[in-house]
Task: inverse folding
């Protein structure tokens, strides 16, 4: 389901980030709201995506996250830890935990900033998401446009293109 932008999303993200900082005060060095719900005006699946940076992935303990309702999720991405939070069997939050060394060049952060600054491209993205909502392989159908927009965003920062499809690499 793709929903129109909800101004409550940043509030929900901030509340989740406060919980995470409290649960892992010594581990989390950076923490941001990423993904479509972090782009004002952008239609999105109503799932709050967060990204945390830590010195090393092995410093993250599952127990404090479990107490907040996050469970470890394995989806083939090897350069991060991924946690999912659900309510009534519906995904509400996704937490990506990455290393601080990789933080500045993370595509999700770069694309979020680009979409905030380029409303026409954000609208293109929203239209595509509405067109493909409910299709099997939803994420895969977005890859070409996400790659195009991320390449532009990275080029603006003087960064080379890298593949945006990260599962199973």
Result:
């Amino acid at each position: 389901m793709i929903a129109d932008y909800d101004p409550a999303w940043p509030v929900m993200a901030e509340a989740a980030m406060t919980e995470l900082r409290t649960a892992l005060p010594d581990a989390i060095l950076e923490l941001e709201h990423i993904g479509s719900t972090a782009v004002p005006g952008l239609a999105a699946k109503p799932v709050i995506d967060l990204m945390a940076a830590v010195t090393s992935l092995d410093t993250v303990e599952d127990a404090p996250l479990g107490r907040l309702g996050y469970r470890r999720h394995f989806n083939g991405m090897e350069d991060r830890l991924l946690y999912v939070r659900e309510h009534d069997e519906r995904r509400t939050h996704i937490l990506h935990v990455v290393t601080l060394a990789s933080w500045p060049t993370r595509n999700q952060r770069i694309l979020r900033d680009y979409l905030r600054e380029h409303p026409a491209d954000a609208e293109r993205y929203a239209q595509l998401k509405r067109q493909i909502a409910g299709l099997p392989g939803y994420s895969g159908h977005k890859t070409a446009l996400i790659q195009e927009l991320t390449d532009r965003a990275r080029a603006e920062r003087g960064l080379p293109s890298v593949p945006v499809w990260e599962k199973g690499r």
